């Protein structure tokens, strides 16, 4: 895991000291923005519909606070306004009693759980946050970006986090990283073929990173092993010298079949909903009938498939 400081007029991240110009991230034209905000069918079917169907069971399993996130929230100044993009069941909302929290998530049932618990939360998309610019003091995106199926949408979600946080504020991002993941667990996931991805996302859709020329600066952290990669971002002005500048071509990268076979990043990750759960008689029955889920009598569960893009080393920073 890594801490990353992002400045204004710069944004940041990398294993080496580098720096990114914010203008390179924020100058999207309207046509490009609309295209990015269009939700691919694979996300509608294997993210949105799945989490709507499993929301109560999913929520019952989401209560432990990740130490990295807890430490970040505890470090915020009193009175800070924290925006949680992809808040799920709201387990981090209100974590620091000295701060104010607003959460949003694409899943209406999960937002319903948040509001039942007394949290301020609303239904919204991570690539189109419903806040004015420089609105919050800090923002978090915990295990959200890997559910976005194209590089441009993941990039847009990061831009939105930066946009809604004031100058000098902080952003914390965590994602699943393939190098840190248990290979035994990965073997139980279903890798997606290019043909499948082209059918669901669209041929030629950039699923691999293809950003403009980026300058990044990273702040090394203690060697902490875990399944996730994190990125801590600050919009304060930086006067430090750059040790390295990374230049990346502006052209769109095409998917290479051989490369994908060796470096698989797109998966279906199973979610087992036990037969005894009340949801089995509702949305899950329809999901099985429609082919969105299947029954596994040996495990006594309905099995859903969730779309994941598992990040490679350094991909989040770039």
Helix-strand blueprint:
Layout: E1 3-4, E2 10-11, E3 20-21, H1 22-26, H2 30-37, H3 41-60, H4 67-74, E4 81-85, E5 100-105, H5 108-116, E6 121-123, E7 136-142, H6 151-164, E8 165-176, H7 183-186, E9 190-191, H8 194-201, E10 218-219, E11 228-234, H9 257-262, E12 266-274, H10 283-289, E13 293-296, E14 301-309
Parallel strand pairs: 4-5, 4-7, 5-6, 7-8
Antiparallel strand pairs: 1-10, 2-3, 8-11, 9-12, 12-14, 13-14
Helix pairs in contact: 3-5
Brief overview:
InterPro entries: AlkB_tRNA_MeTrf/Diox (IPR051422), Methyltransf_11 (IPR013216), SAM-dependent_MTases_sf (IPR029063). The protein is α/β, with parallel strands linked by helices and 318 residues long.
What would your notes on this structure say?
This protein is α/β, with parallel strands linked by helices. It has a single domain (3-309), classed as 3-Layer(aba) Sandwich (Rossmann fold). It has helices at residues 22-26, 30-37, 41-60, 67-74, 108-116, 151-164, 183-186, 194-201, 257-262, 283-289, and strands at 3-4, 10-11, 20-21, 81-85, 100-105, 121-123, 136-142, 165-176, 190-191, 218-219, 228-234, 266-274, 293-296, 301-309. The protein has a 6-stranded mixed sheet with strand order 6-5-4-7-8-11. A hairpin with an 8-residue loop joins strand 2 (10-11) and strand 3. The model is unreliable at 1-31, 204-227 and 236-262 (pLDDT under 50).
């Amino acid at each position: 895991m890594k801490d990353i400081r992002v400045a204004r007029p710069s944004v940041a991240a990398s294993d080496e000291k580098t720096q990114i110009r914010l203008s390179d991230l924020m100058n999207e034209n309207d046509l490009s923005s609309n295209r990015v905000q269009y939700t691919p069918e694979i996300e509608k079917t294997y993210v949105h519909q799945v989490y709507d169907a499993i929301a109560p069971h999913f929520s019952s399993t989401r209560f432990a606070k990740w130490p990295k996130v807890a430490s970040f929230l505890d470090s915020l100044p009193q009175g800070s306004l924290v925006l949680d993009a992809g808040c799920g069941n709201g387990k981090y909302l209100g974590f620091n009693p000295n701060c104010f929290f607003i959460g949003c998530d694409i899943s209406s049932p999960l937002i319903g759980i948040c509001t039942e618990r007394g949290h301020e939360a609303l239904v919204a998309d991570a690539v189109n946050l419903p806040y004015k610019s420089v609105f919050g003091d800090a923002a978090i995106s915990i295990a959200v970006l890997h559910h976005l199926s194209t590089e441009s949408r993941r990039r847009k979600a990061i831009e939105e986090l930066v946009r809604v946080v004031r100058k000098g504020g902080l952003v914390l991002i965590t994602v699943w990283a393939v190098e840190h993941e248990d290979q035994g667990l990965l073997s139980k996931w279903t890798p997606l073929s290019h043909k499948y991805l082209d059918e669901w996302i669209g041929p030629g859709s950039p699923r691999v990173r293809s950003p403009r020329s980026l300058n990044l600066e990273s702040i090394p952290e203690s060697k902490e092993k875990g399944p996730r990669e994190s990125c801590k971002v600050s919009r304060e002005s930086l006067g430090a010298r750059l040790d390295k500048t990374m230049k990346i071509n502006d052209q769109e990268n095409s998917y290479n079949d051989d490369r994908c076979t060796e470096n698989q990043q797109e998966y279906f990750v199973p979610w087992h909903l036990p037969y005894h759960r009340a949801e089995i008689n509702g949305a899950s029955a329809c999901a099985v009938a429609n082919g969105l889920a299947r029954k596994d009598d040996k495990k006594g569960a309905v099995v859903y498939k969730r779309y994941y893009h598992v990040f490679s080393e350094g991909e989040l920073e770039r």
